[in-house]
Amino acid sequence: MSAASSSEPACSSNPERRGNLMSRQVTIVGAAGIPCGRVQTAPGLDLQVLEHEVLAACVLEAVGQAGVGKESIDAMVLCHPRPYTQQLYFGTFMANYLRLPSNGVVMEVVGNGMTGGLAFDQAAQMIETGRADVALALGVNFETAICSAEHMNRSMRATGDVAFHTPFGFTPISWYAMDAMRYMHETGATRAEIASVAVKNRRHAALNPLAQYRELVTLEEVLAQRPIVEPFGLYEVPPRSDGAACIVLASEDAARALGKPYARVIGRGFHHEGAHQISEVPTDMIAFNAAVRAGGQAYRAAGLQADDIDVAELYAPCTIVEVLVSEALGLTPRGRGAAQAAAGETALGGRIPICTSGGLIARGHPPFITPLYSYLELFEQLTRRAGARQVPEAAIAMAACELGNYNAALVHILEAAA
Amino acid sequence: MSDAAQMPAMPRLPMAGTRPYPPAQSSFTSAFWCGLDEGRFMATHCTACDRLSFPPKPFCPHCWHRSVQWRAIEPRGVVYSATTIHAAPKVFGAEAPYQVGIIDLRAGLRIATRLLGNTPTARLLDREVELAVLAYEDGPLFAARLIDPL
């Protein structure tokens, strides 16, 4: 913790953090999710697992854990579901399914892999502006019953310009693969150093009951996997995952009234560089400039710097992405992220534990809700519920998520409160 | 397009069959694909701010002026990065594994396209490439290949 934050017992009194006098402090008071994995049933089976039943169970668990009354909830921001979901108008349907009237908003948001982050951010704005005292950010992402080649036939249309990039056969993760090739070329980082991120994340996932892949793997096993997109094999790219999660946000007054530990949102940053996967103007693609800018905004808002962060959950679909976004956010030095990961600095027990949940690679990656699992993990860390994954003394946490090849980044800084 | 004559012609490579994912064209962008079929690689050039853009647009994305003209640009550049895709979308499954890359053209534009040849991926970076026309039976695509593959 910096001198600035440790000298302030109650940060809600800090006008710089509040931004303006009309804004209110936002907190997280509850979070719940199902284990990531294969949940979706194949189309046509007699018995189906229904998205709304699964999500409603998460809502009841998270709200019950928070101890807030149903009547105090005044906003519900949902992640738009995958195109495979049978129920349309999912958000307004859920309001009915839960019999949850709202004065704030009921809406679905979508923004590629940032969708869960945008749901959280929008719910936070409902609290901040006083339109709700309690708000839910929630979503369900089912897709694993659709085979990968079929799924990629759709996702390839997200890989740039559908007329000028898609015809060449790019896949979403091919951009990250090219980041990795460039990173090794420029920095001299090795394949093994980058691959070590996957080994580390499996170790973290082994301790997380919500993680999809909890078996430990060795570096040799990671490097020996069948190739997916060079230089990555199967264990360095995201798995296909289903998931569902609900985060309960509240005003600081509402959070205090609950009388339990909670997490306070003390910084937020967003930047979109006005490019989608690739910029026609040559730039340093591996600098992840959007994350640099968004991180800078969040640090300034919180009055903190990178070495104040105790634990971070980074949206990183491939090993290299965790390396590059760690560098962009200042958690590791530029060009040294892979080496520091290999040296254990980003592992539990290391200097700055990153992706204690196991991250996208091991915890799982249900894309349209993935960032919700980041807030869930950080809430558990900051309220001392993380069990064997607990980062001792974790007081300040960072979440980051992205659009495209980190062409945009959304960063939140959270702090433990009681 | 007056400078087209000074440009090296793009090699034209006959391709069997049809394009796996034919590009959508508008009445505006069809000029690009027609030019490509004739061996020219064209970007849009803004007469107000003098900047190029690609993919081509009927306005300048940098300054938002509508005064753009087609300009044939030198079909040569350097590989910024590259990868080999083994797990491919269904429509490209028959071609996998294949190489794609990001090319910084000499004209100052960054594009992404297919890479031809069998050079190991790691040895493609920072190498000089030329753009070629892939003449499929249903229309053209473009790709990059090393000028000196050794």
Keywords:
heterodimer; A: 418 residues; alpha/beta; nine-stranded mixed β-sheet; 15 helices; globular; disordered N terminus; B: 150 residues; mainly beta; three-stranded antiparallel β-sheet; 1 helix; 9 strands; 5% helix
Number of strands of chain B: 9
In whole angstroms, the N-to-C terminal distance of chain B is 34 Å
Neighbour order of strands in the largest sheet of chain A: 3-2-4-7-1-8-11-10-9
- Biggest pleated-sheet summary of chain A: 9 strands, mixed
Trace the largest sheet of chain B across and list its strands.
5-6-7-9-8
Instruction: Figure out the total of helices of chain A.
Output: 15
Strand content range of chain A: 15-25%
The main pleated sheet of chain B reads as: 5 strands, mixed, barrel
Series of secondary-structure elements of chain B, N-terminal to C-terminal:
EHEEEEEEEE
Structural class call of chain B reads mainly beta
Mean pLDDT of chain B: 95
Query: Percentage of helical residues of chain A?
Result: 25-40%
> Which regions of chain A are unreliable across 5 or more consecutive residues at pLDDT < 50?
1-21
Which value, in Å, is the CA radius of gyration of chain A?
20 Å
What overall form of chain B do the CA principal axes indicate? globular
> What would the average pLDDT of chain A be, to the nearest integer?
94
